[in-house]
Amino acid sequence: MLVVVICALTNVAACARAQFQSGHLYVTDRVFRDGDILEYDANFNYVGSFKPGLQSGNNLNLGGGLRFGPDGHLYNFGELIDTGGNSRTGIFDWSAPAVLANFYPTPGFYVPEVEGFDVLPNGHFIVADLSTIRDYARDFATFQDYTITQGGGWQGVFLHNGAVFVVGVAELGGFDTGTRTQNFYYGSMTDNADLSVRADGVIALNYQFHDNDANLLNGTTDSVELLNSSGTFLKKAFVPDPLWTADGGLAFGLNGGLFVPSNELNPAGSAIVAPHLALLDSSFNYLGSQTLAHWREAGGIAIAQVPEPGALTLFGACALTLGVVTRRRIRLRQAFIGIMNLLAARPQ
Question: Which 8-state DSSP code applies to residue 32?
Fold first, then answer.
């Protein structure tokens, strides 16, 4: 309803973005205290910014994680900075592009320190805080711990078919959301920042740090580790780019291909030149890289997988609401003209 009201009170252009469109990419722009979430269509054309959804003068300082919840909303963790420069940390709930439905502040500044999170079917947040994995109510007032038998340094979190997968420092843990117990542990090959899970259960782990100097000197090739949903190693997906430093998220596309954000470094490995996406097909063959307009610093990524009929329904609601408002304006104008005509006809 809020989206429809916004559509009606702004313009038709607002209606065009008042939904998450299937196949669109959403990436965090992690510039310090000037962050943003940017939207691109399936052809990598820039669609818009989320900043218009903030109160005037407010700003963002964002972490890397972006997750679509079971309600179809897009969630991210970070800092909300007010006009006085004061910051609160919490989880942002976007009901549509640039439409901030809620902000759920943490009890303290980076307390808990949300290294990674996802949204459970009941609306709770499952949060990785380096040494703990917890199921938090949305107000963060209550929580339940997951039982960890092996692992630590937990960071990225991803839910899939009743299981939750959490990456840490050179490891992956699989947990059951019903019992909140650990199913498996996998010792991975490098320090990981985030992960994504494909519909068929393939898990992709993303590096947190890449040794660019070693890549340049030794000709080594960066890669993404791939596992099945039981934590069994499948293969590496190689990215032959010596300047690649993929320290953010990654996401599977609608066709099963993989999108991996990276901050491209200069040959000395000391400065960001331009962020880009490494593109891999559904068999994990490297296809090349893609730059994105207005993207300044890479971080998290999410790809919308919403049903098209819902999009049509929402467009219809926007059009209907705009039509109702227009008709009301016409009737009000007609009533005003009628009153003025009556006044003009009164005897002096």
Answer: T
Asked if residues 101 and 110 have their Cβ atoms less than 8 Å apart, the reply is: no
Distance CA 174, CA 231 (A): 7
Query: Cα dist. 121→62, 135, 163, 164, 315 in Å?
Result: 24, 12, 12, 12, 26
Number of Cβ within a 10 Å radius of residue 108: 11
Does this model's pTM top 0.85? My answer is no
The H-or-E segment that residue 118 falls in is: strand 116-119
Per the listing, tokens 């092996």 go with: 150
Which burial class, exposed, middle or buried, applies to 43 when counting CB atoms under 10 A from its CB (0-12, 13-18, 19+)? exposed
Per the listing, tokens 């068999």 go with: 283
Query: For 247-286, how does the pLDDT look when each residue is reduced to its tens digit (9 = 90+)?
Result: 678 999 999 999 998 887 666 656 666 788 999 999 999 9
Beta strands 181-186; 192-197: pairing state:
unpaired
Q: Whole-angstrom Cα distance, residue 273 to residue 256? A: 29
pLDDT in tens, 313-331: 332 333 323 333 333 333 3
